[in-house]
Specification:
Blueprint: H1 3-6, H2 18-33, H3 38-47, H4 54-62, H5 69-78, H6 83-87, E1 96-99, E2 103-106, H7 107-114, H8 141-157, H9 160-167, H10 169-187, H11 193-232
Antiparallel strand pairs: 1-2
Helix pairs in contact: 2-4, 3-4, 8-9, 10-11
Length: 233
């Protein structure tokens, strides 16, 4: 079916947005990294049961042809990569990336989001030190709001068993450890001593909370085994 036939009569073609343009550029880059011509990639897709002509691949790379969900997955398989690799630019850290429907967010946020690790929320990407109250469960209001948003994100994003793991206190704290360590590494060569010291304390605090939850898991396991043994006896 030609691109013209794909369009409904009397309707304008859907304009390619920021993510669609990224897919086209990443498709071209990855195809070249794999040493494939458009004809060779087309032949691989034909054998895989998802035929796309070489001209269609060229139009995808230029942003002139929409890439459907099935196209995206088939292209990722043919290029031996993940579908998410095609969705975002090959950048990381503080660089801003444009995501259709969201706008501009930090690259690290975008990559966590497409990997299903958290919402498209830039919390934790700045290097500002945060004052902490002695009785606070969380380090700051931003962290509290992020965790609330993440819980809602996980509820509709993850399979039930994986959601249970992520929402367990130990899973939550493990995620926060990763966030704080990432932030600490970023700050290590450019932040002030005070800001770095504060972030180091945050990272250690997150690790301490994780260790506490892991110990609690071990204790609960021993308790359950003891109760089971008593019941069997």
């Amino acid at each position: 079916m030609s691109d013209e036939q794909r369009k409904a009569p009397g309707r304008r073609a859907i304009e390619t947005g920021p993510t669609g343009k990224t897919v086209g550029k990443k498709l071209a880059d990855l195809r070249k990294v794999r040493g494939l011509t458009t004809r060779q990639l087309s032949a691989k897709l034909e054998r895989a049961g998802r035929p796309i002509p070489a001209s269609g691949i060229t139009r995808m790379e230029s942003g002139e042809r929409q890439v459907t969900a099935d196209d995206l997955v088939a292209l990722a398989v043919a290029l031996n990569t993940s579908p998410i690799t095609l969705l975002l630019p090959s950048t990381w850290g503080d660089a801003d990336v444009e995501v259709t429907g969201k706008g501009s967010i930090k690259a690290r946020t975008a990559w966590r989001w497409v990997r299903g690790l958290g919402p498209a929320n830039d919390w934790g990407t700045d290097d500002d030190a945060v004052e902490v109250g002695p009785d606070d469960e969380y380090w700051d209001q931003g962290e509290r709001e992020y965790l609330e948003e993440k819980e809602k994100f996980d509820a509709v994003t993850l399979p039930p068993e994986l959601r249970r793991v992520r929402q367990h206190p130990a899973g939550r704290d493990a995620d926060l450890v990763a966030l704080h360590v990432d932030r600490l590494i970023r700050m290590s060569d450019r932040a002030s001593e005070d800001a770095f010291g504060d972030q180091l304390a945050r990272a250690k605090g997150a690790v301490d909370r994780l260790v506490t939850e892991l110990d609690r898991l071990a204790e609960e396991r021993v308790l359950r085994k003891g109760q089971k043994g008593g019941a069997d006896g």
